[in-house]
Specification:
heterodimer, A: 248 residues, mainly alpha, B: 266 residues, Rossmann fold, binds adenosine-5'-triphosphate, binds magnesium ion
């Protein structure tokens, strides 16, 4: 337990000390909200779908969590390069505890960023459909954060250095985001894209968040919850296994 | 009376075709200061990684304080402290936070934690910089902090992989005299590597010399000197390992050649 706590605390300290990271992590989502939200808003409205900002904001919050979580997970590569990973790996604590602590820390950091983006989205005109659903929305944010931080950790356990990082960003994280329905409705998509969106785990996070924040759902809340919870457990298990096998 | 705290036999590590550590055997007695010397790429760090549970051996048997690093990792991990060849501090944390992190990870009791951290940081003369971020420290300060950190949980064995690299003579003397005390007074076993032969000669009770993954000699500094009929450990070292400069990226053929030359010399 103390292992998990101290690793969690370390991640938070590192985050709060780097102001550029706090700013950088919300700049892109804000840009998306403003450009896409106001840019596509009129068309969306004319198509008879209502307020686009309401649709978009949950997608952008999911995006924030995705990018930040994968990044926080993958930070292990940095620790490996700068040597700090060795310090934790020779300590008499279980690798599982280290992995869980890191994941908890990384997930907390991306949750904080998501909340910041949530507040910013309200500044540009987003309003949750019902405040009562906010706790459930928070649950979804946590699930997305845990799932993708663990995924980042799992991937980082397999990478030796930074070289793989760009590949992961371009071939995993970007597709996860763009194909998830964060930016567009999943109804009436071309068949292939529809299937891809169903395989994309982020789709369920976006959908759950949209259901709770905007009252719009495609898969249904129950499905979203179950898929995200199962996926988180599986990825955590795989991540712990891969992390426990790291040799330096 | 004098138990072996480290026992290694038949230890081998392969990376693909490269045999980094080749059938190595040695023992270290409790409380001893033991130097592990060898040219660049000889296999020193790889051996230390296997002794400290970071790397699985390809073959061979290791006992650290009676425990096997492969099957009983936690017991082994509790028994040693280590200073790695490469830096291993968190640059974004302060010196004190790095120490605290270690203390909590190693379950140093909260009652003792603050006192011990203060004591060790005063010893390495970093107490007045305790709240400074490590990224603002010089190389020597980081090294001193790592040494303090490695001792925080009262290890029975202290591994140091080139601990004095890049330190000024004052700091080096200071550290060696402290390690000497630690071994003499508290019975801590010190296992270190260095490329400064005079350090090993002055402080080590016994020296193992490893070259191309094989131990070529293991004796007291005096024993090595008389065996090679030389007057300093450095000369003995050069006599045993040859004068050619080691290219870590040497091809397989080069390595074969070096091996052959070594055999021819004998
Ligand atoms: N992870 C690895 N993969 C492949 N080869 C490796 C790996 N680690 C070490 N080696 C190789 O094993 C050999 C021994 O390396 P090692 O780091 O143990 O040498 P060393 O004695 O510590 O040298 P130095 O004095 O330069 O630190 C070298 O040829 C090195 O290139
Ligand atoms: Mg080395």
């Amino acid at each position: 337990m103390t292992t998990i706590y101290i690793l969690w605390l370390r991640q938070l300290k590192r985050f709060f000390r780097s102001r550029s990271r706090v700013l950088g992590s919300v700049a892109q989502p804000l840009l998306f909200l403003i450009a896409l939200g106001f840019g596509f808003g009129p068309i969306y409205q004319r198509a008879g779908r209502g307020n686009f900002m309401e649709f978009l904001a949950p997608g952008i919050i999911s995006m924030t969590i995705l990018f930040s979580s994968v990044f926080n997970g993958i930070e292990i590569i940095w620790d490996r390069q700068f040597g700090f990973l060795k310090e934790t790996l020779v300590a008499p604590v279980s690798r599982m505890g280290i992995m869980l602590g890191r994941t908890a820390g990384g997930a907390t950091v991306s949750l904080l960023q998501a909340l910041l983006v949530f507040v910013l989205s309200m500044a540009v005109g987003f309003r949750p459909a019902s405040w009562g659903n906010l706790p459930l929305a928070l649950v979804f944010m946590v699930l997305i954060a845990v799932l993708f931080t663990a995924m980042g950790t799992a991937i980082a356990s397999l990478l030796e250095d930074f070289q793989g990082f760009q590949v992961i960003m371009n071939f995993l994280v970007q597709p996860l985001f763009f194909l998830s329905g964060a930016l567009f409705p999943l109804e009436g998509l071309p068949k292939a894209l529809g299937i891809v969106a169903r395989v994309d785990l982020l789709s369920y996070g976006v959908d759950g968040l949209r259901a709770t924040l905007a009252g719009i759902s495609y898969f249904g809340l129950g499905t979203d919850l179950v898929v995200l919870m199962l996926a988180s457990l599986v990825v955590l298990a795989v991540g712990s296994y891969l992390f426990s096998k790291i040799q330096i | 009376m004098n138990e072996n705290i480290i026992e290694v036999s038949g230890l081998t590590k392969r990376f693909g075709d490269l045999v980094a550590v080749n059938d190595v055997a040695f023992t270290v007695t409790a409380g001893e200061i033991f130097a592990f010397l060898g040219p660049n790429g000889a296999g020193k760090s790889t051996t230390i990684k296997m002794l400290t549970t970071l790397l699985l051996p390809t073959k061979g048997k290791i006992l650290i304080d009676g425990h096997d690093p492969v099957s009983d990792q936690d017991a082994v991990r509790r028994s040693f402290g280590i200073v790695f060849q490469d830096p291993s501090l968190d640059d974004e944390l302060t010196a004190y936070e790095n120490m605290e992190f270690h203390a909590i990870l190693y379950k140093v009791s909260p009652a003792q934690r603050a006192k011990k951290i203060e004591g060790l940081m005063k010893f390495v003369e970093l107490w007045d910089r305790k709240d400074g971020l490590v990224k603002t420290f010089s190389g020597g300060m980081k090294r001193r902090l790592e040494i303090a950190r490695g001792l925080l949980h009262d290890p029975r064995i202290f591994f140091l992989d080139e601990p004095t690299l890049g330190l000024d003579p004052q700091t080096r003397n200071h550290i060696w005299s402290y390690l000497n005390d630690l071994s003499k007074k508290d019975g801590v076993t010190v296992f270190f590597t260095t490329h400064y032969m005079e350090e090993a000669e002055k402080i080590a009770a016994r020296v193992a010399i490893i070259d191309h993954g094989r131990i070529v000699a293991c004796d007291s500094p005096a024993g090595l000197k008389s065996k090679t009929k030389t007057s300093t450990l450095e000369e003995a070292f050069l006599n045993l390992t040859g004068h050619e400069i080691r290219d870590e990226e040497a091809t397989g053929a080069d390595r074969m050649r070096q091996h052959r030359q070594m055999w021819a010399r004998r």
